[in-house]
Specification:
Elements (H helix, E strand, L loop, with lengths): L1 H12 L30 E4 L6 E6 L9 H10 L5 H19 L2 H4 E3 L1
Antiparallel strand pairs: 1-2, 2-3
Helix pairs in contact: 2-3
Length: 112
């Protein structure tokens, strides 16, 4: 999950370990601003460079339950046993889950 979250965060902030925004006239560079495997009590933390204040973000989609058929269909797909219709149903259920998570951001994202 770290890769997915880091990728989304990079798209928003332009911060990356490599290949990040290089800045303007040697200012505002985002190169090397991401660090992994850090001790924290959150999914991620953002720290200001000017005053070292931090904001912690915790992501937990567990409160938004997937459709009960989701797990069964995924198993069939992974074992190459799903029919075309089952694959389509899985896509529909997956998109609904993503929409449910996005529409309930206040339940899955906690800022401190």
């Amino acid at each position: 999950m770290t890769g997915v979250i880091a990728n989304v965060f990079s798209q928003i902030t332009e911060a990356m370990k490599e290949n990040a925004f290089k800045g303007i006239d040697k200012e505002f560079s985002r190169v090397g601003l991401m660090a992994f495997a850090q001790e924290m009590n959150a999914t991620m933390e953002m720290q200001r460079l000017d005053n070292s204040k931090t904001v912690s973000l915790t992501y937990d989609s567990g409160s938004i339950q997937p459709d009960p058929k989701h797990k069964e269909l995924l198993g069939k797909i992974l074992h190459k046993q799903a029919s075309y219709n089952e694959k389509q149903e899985f896509k529909t259920l997956w998109q609904k889950r993503v929409a449910d998570i996005l529409n309930n951001a206040d339940k899955v994202i906690i800022l401190k």
